[in-house]
Amino acid sequence: MPRASFRQVEIERILRAAKAVGSIVQVDLRKLVVTIYPYPEEQTVDPVTGLAPDGKENWDDD
Questions:
Q1: Which of 14, 19, 24, 56 has CA 20 to 30 A from 37's CA?
Q2: Do residues 24 and 36 make contact, with C-beta atoms less than 8 angstroms apart?
């Protein structure tokens, strides 16, 4: 087990920077790796119901 680790100040700085640009942060404390993912532009959850969208309806219009 390595003795090196993230300090609280480093994690706070990473989280503030990710929040400022609207990103998602994944921290792996075993490998000491931080991955920042861009937040998707379109919402994946409906704010009214809290459910994921079903997608486009595919009805035949005869």
A1: 56
A2: yes
pTM above 0.85, yes or no: no
- List all residues 6 or more positions away from 45 whose beta carbon is below 8 Å from its beta carbon: 51, 52
Phi-psi region of 60 (alpha: psi -120 to 50; beta: other; left: phi over 0): beta
CA distances from 25 to 12, 13, 35, 47 (A): 11, 12, 6, 22
Q: Using CA atoms, how far apart are residues 25 and 10, in angstroms rounded to an integer?
A: 13
Taking the chain (62 residues) in runs of 10, the rounded mean pLDDT of each run is: 73 89 87 85 64 69 64
34 and 27 Cβ atoms separated by less than 8 Å: yes
H runs (alpha helix) in 2-42: 8-21
